[in-house]
Design brief:
Length: 149
């Protein structure tokens, strides 16, 4: 897997841990081993501009996902598709506030947002209650497995 992480946020980021988490999630979701992922950490003005440009929402957000080849999780009895999974844009400053509010800190929030973003890249959504249950359940399961290893 090719995982590129760019930190343009001005916030310290454990790039190796983030890459390992991404690889873990992609492996668990049976993403093709040659799939590509780019994660960019940016500041609040940058993510606010992207949020407005692409989501038509004002202000900063925590994570944006830009799927490329519309890859989906692999099935047990099928070979996964090769391609570019997509790009994630994270905002560590927003993550820091959310992590503090949630009581689990910045690093745990960045991990959560990374898993959340990868699931979006794989086609998961949470607009409807059933989708929400499925996506957040899977997100919790992946994070628990990551932290238990």
């Amino acid at each position: 897997m090719s995982i590129e992480i760019l930190n343009e946020s001005g916030h310290p980021l454990d790039v190796k841990r983030l890459a390992a988490l991404s690889r873990f999630v992609m492996d668990r979701m049976r993403v093709h081993p040659l799939a590509e992922l780019c994660i960019k950490a940016v500041d609040e003005p940058t993510i606010a501009q992207l949020n407005e440009q692409w989501m038509e929402k004002a202000g900063p957000t925590d994570v944006l996902a830009f799927p490329m080849d519309e890859l989906r999780p692999g099935l047990v009895d099928e070979d996964p598709e090769e391609g570019v999974l997509g790009d994630l844009v994270l905002c560590p400053d927003v993550a820091a506030r959310q992590g503090e509010t949630a009581g689990h800190g910045t690093e745990a929030e960045i991990e959560l947002l990374t898993v959340h973003g990868i699931l979006h890249l794989l086609g998961y959504d949470h607009a409807e209650p059933e989708e929400h249950r499925e996506m957040f359940g899977l997100q919790d399961e992946l994070l628990a497995a990551w932290r238990a290893r």
